[in-house]
Each structure stands twice: as C-alpha cells, then as structure tokens.
Design a protein that fits this description.
Elements (H helix, E strand, L loop, with lengths): L3 H15 L1 H4 L4 E6 L6 E9 L9 H6 L2 E9 L5 E5 L5
Antiparallel strand pairs: 1-2, 2-3, 3-4
Length: 89
C-alpha cells in the first residue's frame, strides 16, 4: 500500500502527462480520499482558468472559471486508473 504523499506525487505526475493544459494552470490539491475497503485513491485538484493580464474589465474577471479534475490512482501499485471531471453532487 502506497503512502499518501507518494500517491499525491503520482497523481500530479499523471496530470502533467495526461492533461498538460490543466497542469499548466498550476492546480492546487483540494481533496484526497480513500474509501474504506477501497482499492483506489481519489485525488481532487482545482485550478482557475487564466485570463488576459492586460484585460482588467469586469467581464474578464467574471469569465474566470474554476476547473476541477479527479485523478484516481490504484492504492496498491500507484498506477493510473482515471483522470476525470468530478461527479455533480
């Protein structure tokens, strides 16, 4: 069983490999979950879309959006299971 810090490092690496555009937004760790009796870790990252730094208009500020991705990693060996959008609550 992998330690939490190793799982997070692997998830960050998978994001860079699979979704470089998202990784370039410098996402932050939001949540780490391993369900009881679960065989995977779910690591949630969030980032803000970038805006044009020369455009200081209200419309530009309002157009920023929060992007969330969930990386699912096998708890035993750290292999990638999935990178997906979170399910709606």
């Amino acid at each position: 069983m992998l330690e939490v810090k190793e799982v997070i490092r692997k998830a960050e690496s998978y994001l860079t490999e699979v979704m470089p555009e998202f990784a370039n937004l410098e996402p932050e760790l939001e949540e780490v979950v391993r369900r009881p009796k679960g065989s995977t870790w779910e690591i949630t990252f969030r980032a803000q879309s970038r805006r044009n730094p020369t455009d200081e208009s209200l419309a530009s500020l309002l157009m920023q959006r929060r992007i969330v991705k969930v990386v699912e990693v096998d708890a035993a060996d750290g292999s990638l299971v999935a990178v997906r959008n979170p399910q709606a609550s």
